[in-house]
Specification:
Shape: elongated
Structural class: mainly alpha
Order of helices and strands: HHHHHH
């Protein structure tokens, strides 16, 4: 049986490995990330996911909401940033940054959402 202190790290590690594996398999590229940095973005998202997921282990209702907001905001930012960047023929640097950081926020939200979901699956003593 897993004790309470080991579980947050285990859930976060499993979630991070899941999102990282999806990035390595090319899922991020197929969803619209730039091929040059699509494999690194899931790892960069951990910087955002760790605090969100850890908040959830002390305040159960908050992190799922935060992770979902990050997932949606990141997806919208990445989608609109990519469209504006492509329309400007790669000259709109701000749109490129929205595209890039949108993917980081999206992957961080995905890691946090998966980690919180895994934490809720654990058996209660």
């Amino acid at each position: 049986m897993v004790n309470d202190r080991q579980w947050p790290a285990g859930a976060l590690l499993a979630a991070a490995l899941t999102v990282w594996a999806a990035g390595q398999a090319g899922v991020t590229v197929r969803l619209g990330a730039h091929p040059f940095w699509a494999r690194e973005v899931p790892l960069m998202g951990l910087v955002l996911a760790v605090p969100i997921a850890l908040v959830g282990f002390w305040r159960p209702g908050l992190p799922g909401s935060l992770a979902l907001v990050c997932l949606i905001a990141g997806a919208v930012s990445a989608r609109l940033g990519k469209a504006a960047f492509a329309a400007s023929y790669a000259e709109n640097a701000l749109a490129g940054q929205f595209w890039f950081f949108g993917w980081i926020v999206l992957s961080g939200g995905a890691v946090a959402l998966i980690a919180v979901g895994l934490a809720r699956l654990r058996p209660r003593a």
